[in-house]
Amino acid sequence: MPQTAQKSALNVASALLEKARPVLVVFFDIDGVLTDGGLHFTEHGETIKRFNTLDGHGIKLLQKAGITPAVVTGRDSAPLRLRLQQLGVEHVVFGTEDKLPAAQAMLDRLGLGWHQAAAMGDDWPDLPVMQRCALACAPVNAHAENLAIADWVSRAQGGHGAVRELCDLLLLATGHYQRLLEQYQS
Questions:
Q1: Which CATH number goes with the domain that contains 150?
Q2: pTM of the model
Q3: Number of independent structural domains in the chain
C-alpha cells in the first residue's frame, strides 16, 4: 500500500505525524485502554481480563521499530502479568494510582525525555502523564477530561483495537509501517 493510502486509511494529518515522529516510548494504561475496562470476577474472587490480539500485535510491532512500550497501571493480577510477559513488555509498574512518578522513573532509566513520549489513558489517573507527553492519546470511549486533552483519539474503544490504532500511527510517523508490513506480504 502506498504511503498516501496508508495515511488516508488511518485518517492521519501531517501535523499529527510530525508530533508523533520523535516518540520512542509509549505509556499505556491497562483497564479501559488495553482492556475494555470491565472487571470480571470468578466465584473465587479472581479477576479475569480480556485482551485484544490486534493490540498485542501492535505492541510487538512497536518493539520491532525500536519504540518501547511501557505500562503504568493501578491494578495488578496474574493474568495481567502473564499477558505483558507474553508481549515482551519489560517496563511495567503495577498497583499505582500516582502514575507520574512511575513514568518519570521509567523515562530516567531509558534516558529519554517527555518530548519523546506518548501516552494512552482513559481516566483521571492517566491525566498527569498524558499532560506531559509529546503525544497524548485516548480511546474513543475515554472519560471526557482525557478526551479534552488528547492530541489524538482512536476510532476503536479501549480493549477493541484502540492500542493498535495508536501503534499504527506511530509506525507511520517513524517510517516503519511499510517495512514491517512487507515482512508479512512475502
A1: 3.40.50.1000
A2: 0.91
A3: 1
